[in-house]
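General statements about sequence and structure are easier to judge against a single worked case. When preparing material for the folding task, we compiled for one chain both its residues and its backbone structure tokens. The amino acid sequence and the backbone structure tokens for this protein are reproduced below:
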Amino acid sequence: MTALRRTRAGAIALTAAAALTLAACSTDSAGPGESAESDDAGESSESSEEAGSGEFGEISVQYSWIKNEEFAGEFYAYENGYYDEAGFSEVIGISGPDTGVAKLLSGTVEVALSDAASVGAAIAEQDAPLTIIGATFQKNPFTILSLADGGNIATPQDLIGKTIGVQDSNASVFSAMLNANGISEDEVTVVPVDFDPTPLMDGQVDGFMAYLTNEALTVELAGYEVTNLAYADNGVPYVAETFTVTDDYLAENPDLLKEFLIAEIKGWSDVFTEPEEDTVSLVETYYSAAASSSEDAIESAFGALDPEKTLLGLQAEKELISTPDTEANGLFTITEDLKNETVASLAAAGWEVSVEDLFDTTLIEEIYAENPDLIDYQG
């Protein structure tokens, strides 16, 4: 059996090593806006200088994944000049996969688009001075993906006796699923995989740790009938794509972060109001620019984007982002109920952390109090 639990120090060491590797090989880390080949795509990093703005200077943002539709809102913020309007001379978007925890703690980046499990584990196990100030995904996007005529894992109890492919960076999140459902680690066989679901399609594993918006669609588009055991519906309903910063950075830069979040709100509002085919085209432009910026760029390993999958991924992530609560309160807001559910999910995984330690949504609440017109992101 593969042990799932590891020390936080070891996990951070692994993350730091991965971060250094990605930083060394990703010349696209100057951000989608700067690295794009077209004039339009390169406009955002240049226009702020031409306009004489940039009072906040440069800020670095760690993305949790490659530059695909998961960051469509960020691409609109570049494309439509929202970062410029906010007062940034440059916003540097760094490709993942990376939780951003190690980079935040080392000061390599100012903001990380992370997840509650990674952040909560760092706080609980290492007393890491990190805070979630908002969340794009209101619903946990992780799933245990299986083939309907194979493992067909429809309930947590179906995991028992199965072989599950889990990426190293997602081991702690998989532990959360087991612990939340009273399943011991020795009841499941875990094998290491990367993010390519071929082992599932080839029958090497019964289940595969995946995103509802990504690998689940890849397998379905390959012609397989799939079964999803969604984390959000099975005891692990935490927020994801979280805007995460250090406690010190939050205390020292509240105005900067408010303007950054406003730019993000505007960008993600465009995702909901612009034609989906235009958004797919925008994503392809920024992804292609990142992939072509260097033969070592992480995106180049994934090949060209599939427009059909990109559209389906975009539609799926909208369902994770938009809820009755966000419709009432605005994008990135986190209700007290959702905060408590998130903390309860982490506790089930063995990470004891309080709502106050994990979240500080003061800035996002102030933004909507001062700019109520931003609440309606669907036009």
About this structure: The two ends are 51 Å apart (CA to CA). The chain has two domains: 8-140+238-374, 142-233. The first strand starts at residue 57 and ends at 62. The first helix runs from residue 8 to 25.
